[in-house]
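User: My instructor asked us to take a sequence, write out its structure as tokens, and then describe one feature of it. I'm not sure where to start. Here is the sequence I was given:
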Amino acid sequence: MGTIQAASGLFNTLTSAAGSVSEYLPEPVAEGIDFAQSLTSARQGIEIDVSPAYQDLIDKQIETQQELQQVTFTSNIERSEHETRMAAIRNVRVA
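Assistant: Let's start with the prediction itself. The structure tokens for your sequence are:
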């Protein structure tokens, strides 16, 4: 019976130690995400005075980024289809 009591005491000691250690574990911080979300939500309701020359550049930048996203999206789909077709061909060659 002494071994069971010792094991039980050790278990209780470890449990209490783990409980006290958890108080010191770092918490993950996601401030950057919240900050970015606050900027995008605030941007919709706030008017910013920008000179027309800069506004044209900003609009062109946004348009270029959207175009790049579309090209990347299409490229990824085409690459996936190509890899799928090539996998069948590679399997035939191996056999």
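For the description part of your assignment, you could build on this observation: The mean pLDDT is 76. Try explaining in your own words what that tells you about the chain.
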